[in-house]
Amino acid sequence: MTDHDTVDFDLAGMVRVRVTGGGREIAAVGRQLGLPRSPVDGGADISIEFVDRIAGTGLERKLGRDEASFDDDGFLVTRAKSKARARVRIPFEDIGDGLVIRCEPGLPAVPLLVPILAVTALTKGLLPLHAGAFEWNGCGVVVTGWSKGGKTETLLATAEAGARYVGDEWCYIDPSRSLVVGIPEPVTVWGWHVRHFPSLRARVPRRDRIRMGLLDLPDRLESLVPERWRVQRPARMLRRIAFHTRDRANTWLDPHELFGVDDVSSVSLDRLVLVVSAETDDVTLRPMAGSEIASRMVSSVRYELEPLLQHYRMFRYAFPERTSRALERLDADLDVTMHRGLDDVPGWVLEHPYPVDLAALAEGLRPIVEPGGDR
Predict the structure, then answer these.
(1) Which candidate, 7, 174, 289, 363, has a CA 20 to 30 Å from the CA of 350?
(2) Distance (Å, rounded) from C-alpha 356 to C-alpha 157?
(3) What angle do CA 121, 126, 130 make, to 5 degrees?
């Protein structure tokens, strides 16, 4: 390797990710992680090394549709973000124990890196939670739930109402300190967000607004078709078109620009909210024990880690004699840490219609951040 630098990234002072490569590769990993850089010091929990070429010593055998392969040297992930071709060697048995990932350059993102970070954090006693977090009126709130349940919408709504953004998508909770560390990953903004939240328009590039509007149009038209016409062939064709376009009517925005954050931030864990999209006309809020939310979120986090676990099963197929202690213990460790981190936190469930009026969403949450809101 020539002209390569080494940079460390730090998660809550407990997980260190070290990247060795060119400036472009280091910048890409930095965007993917959203973690602050730290001085290179000591050992790393996850090392990522970019090399010109990953050589093998034997016949390379393929797994799936160009998803992975293996040879006598080890296991290779061969698909990256957006189905880009990749060659990334990951020794799964070392996850949580000084893992070294080797990549060929040119990747848009290192495959499986975010779930690997989550599992590594879990081995250190941190709770990786699929959640957003904000501080409002001096109160730290974690908003969690199943994927597409309304976490990002809650962050957008509360930020407009004056809350301070802490993190989205993944947050890490230190149960020993009741502290939430947010990771400022890119935020997915949808076409209907812009329609229902006009202040977003200025923050979304015009080209993306036009693209999202066109992709969102079939879904909007389909929703206007009277019930009695929906069995007709044109309506069925429109429904099929809308099905294929609605999930592409989005863009990613940098949280530094969207929310004005400077870096990774943290907040005390004072409130816990389970956000649920429901067949209802109104936004409703009711108490729910933190232990019940914890029990539900064990399944949610495991679902988010499934791409990593699927590749681990491929790895075990290739190398039956090799196991990852961290992944074999994942369910038990996740259950224990989830309940340790969330059981004693005052909790609520927030149910809302979809799409939801974002101002109503913020008003629905306001009571829990006012004085006496933990009762």
Answers:
(1) 174
(2) 10
(3) 80
- Bridge pairing between strands 271-277 and 284-287: unpaired
User: Residue 101's closest CA among 127, 120, 126?
Assistant: 120
Question: Is residue 54 within 8 Å of residue 87, measured between CB atoms?
Answer: yes
38, 94, 154, 318 from 124: Cα distances, Å: 19, 14, 29, 28
CA 357 centroid distance within chain: 24
Q: 67-81, 152-166, 184-198, 339-353: which has the minimum mean pLDDT?
A: 184-198
What band does 176 get if pLDDT is binned at 50, 70 and 90?
very high
Calpha distance 174→341 (Å, rounded): 7
Q: Strand, helix or coil at 333?
A: helix
Average per-residue pLDDT for the chain: 89
**Cis ω on the peptide bond leading into residue 355 (within 30° of 0)?**
yes
* Integer Cα distance of 239 and 217 in angstroms: 11
Averaged pLDDT for residues 129-143: 94
Question: Could you give the C-alpha distances from 270 to 111, 134, 331, in angstroms and in order?
Answer: 34, 11, 26
Q: Quick one: residue 221, left, alpha or beta (phi over 0 = left, psi -120 to 50 = alpha)? A: alpha
In this structure, what token pair is assigned to residue 370?
A: 């006012």
In contact, 89 and 99? CB cutoff 8 Å: no
Residues 6+ apart with CB under 8 A from 92: 75, 311, 312, 315, 322, 324, 327
Helix axes 330-342, 290-304, angle to 10 degrees: 140
How does pLDDT run across 49-96, given as a tens digit for each residue?
A: 999 998 776 678 999 888 999 998 899 999 887 678 889 999 999 999
Burial of residue 73 (number of CB atoms within 10 Å: 0-12, 13-18, 19+): middle
pLDDT tens per residue across span 288-329: 999 999 999 999 999 999 999 999 999 999 999 999 999 999
Mean pLDDT on 181-205 = 81
Please list the helix, strand and coil fractions of the chain in percent, rounded to the nearest 5, in that order.
40, 25, 35
Residue 177 in this model has a pLDDT that exceeds 80? yes
